[in-house]
Design goal:
Protein name: Ethylmalonyl-CoA decarboxylase
Strand content: 5-15%
Shape: globular
GO molecular function, one term: methyl/ethyl malonyl-CoA decarboxylase activity
Number of strands: 9
Helix content: 40-55%
Radius of gyration: 20 Å
Subcellular location: Cytoplasm, Cytosol
Oligomer: single chain
Low-confidence stretches: none
Distance between the termini: 54 Å
Largest sheet: 6 strands, mixed
Number of helices: 15
Family: Belongs to the enoyl-CoA hydratase/isomerase family.
Catalytic activity: (2R)-ethylmalonyl-CoA + H(+) = butanoyl-CoA + CO2; (2S)-ethylmalonyl-CoA + H(+) = butanoyl-CoA + CO2; (S)-methylmalonyl-CoA + H(+) = propanoyl-CoA + CO2
Length: 318
């Protein structure tokens, strides 16, 4: 019943309705891949993944929260809030992250998203209480599939996303930063994939995304060396996009919003279409990506923003 209700809610969402119109014009080869981009999960029962069972297990580990604030500017601010444990993810926080992602999938006015940690630190990864209790390979793989599902949906959001790294982003916290389009650090912050020292590999999709961001050779160094990436080193290898001057929590968030603003100026439908197009290119082959780009174009060509821009004189003047 829960899965049927989940499917019903999905089919009534704006994201689903918009994608359904694109599916009508897409070749069969593309349709299967497009379906993955409307909130459906990477893993389901055919992979041995039973979401409701995993949720019941995660509910047993309370603590902290995932807080979402939607600004009138079209920027969402997602805060990992568990400061007594360096914003480590409890089981309940993992569940709340999925809830917030679903909410953001349906936020049609949104253009950008900043994810950060409370109290001037990003996240230390998973709460060790949950890690110890979920100690079997079966439990580990179930949580892995749950978080890969969630972070893949996060990555596919039609919002330009930024990870604001203040303090330390360790383990799973480092993995979360890779699900964003951009990463910003402060001068005193650090990113470190500590998985090797815990006797595991990244389990939330972080290794796959890291290779895409910095390339295979650099990713192997970072992962196998469990390297401490300070802001300068991270900038040099292409892990982050900029270093913010302030280390004050409030001022730093303001700087991150200003940095993001340069990329989200314009109507939401145009910014969101651009993000969708780029996301498709990362997951589809060339021919399919081109067809997807064509279909997304059809949602904005001749629209209000396009007609207004065409009517303006000196359209390229700032």
């Amino acid at each position: 019943m829960a899965e049927q209700q989940q499917q019903k809610n999905l089919e009534s969402s704006p994201a689903y309705i918009e994608m359904a119109s694109l599916l009508k014009t897409s070749p069969n080869a593309v349709k299967k891949r497009l379906l993955h981009q409307i909130g459906l999960s990477l893993y389901n029962t055919s992979h041995g993944f039973h979401e409701e069972e995993v949720k019941k297990k995660l509910e047993q580990f309370p603590g902290g929260s995932i807080d979402l604030q939607k600004e009138n500017s079209g920027i969402g601010i997602l805060t990992l809030n568990n400061p007594s444990k360096m914003n480590a993810f409890s089981g309940v926080m993992m569940l709340q992250l999925l809830e917030k992602v679903i909410e953001l999938e349906n936020w049609t006015e949104g253009k950008g998203l900043i994810i950060r940690g409370a109290k001037n630190t990003f996240s230390s990864g998973s709460d060790l209480n949950a890690v110890k209790a979920l100690g079997t390979p079966e439990d580990g793989m179930a949580v892995c599939m749950f978080m890969q599902n969630t972070l893949t949906r996060f990555m596919r959001l039609p919002l330009i996303s930024v990870a604001l790294v203040q303090g330390r982003a360790l383990g799973g916290g480092a993995e979360v930063t890779t699900a964003c389009d951009f990463r910003l650090m402060t001068t005193e912050s650090e990113i470190r994939f500590v998985h090797k020292e815990m006797g595991i590999i990244p389990s939330w999709g972080g290794a796959t995304r890291l290779v895409e961001i910095i390339g295979g050779r650099q990713a192997l160094k970072v992962l196998s060396g469990a390297l401490k990436l300070d802001s300068e080193k991270a900038l040099n290898i292409g892990m982050v996009d900029d270093i913010l001057p302030s280390s004050d929590e409030t001022e730093c968030l303001k700087e991150a919003q200003e940095w993001l603003q340069q990329f989200i100026k314009g109507p939401p439908e145009v910014i969101r279409a651009l993000k969708k197009s780029v996301s498709s290119c990362k997951e589809l082959c060339l021919e399919e990506a081109l067809q997807r780009e064509r279909d997304i174009l059809g949602t904005v060509w001749g629209g209000p923003a396009n007609l207004e821009a065409v009517a303006r004189k000196g359209k390229f003047n700032k």
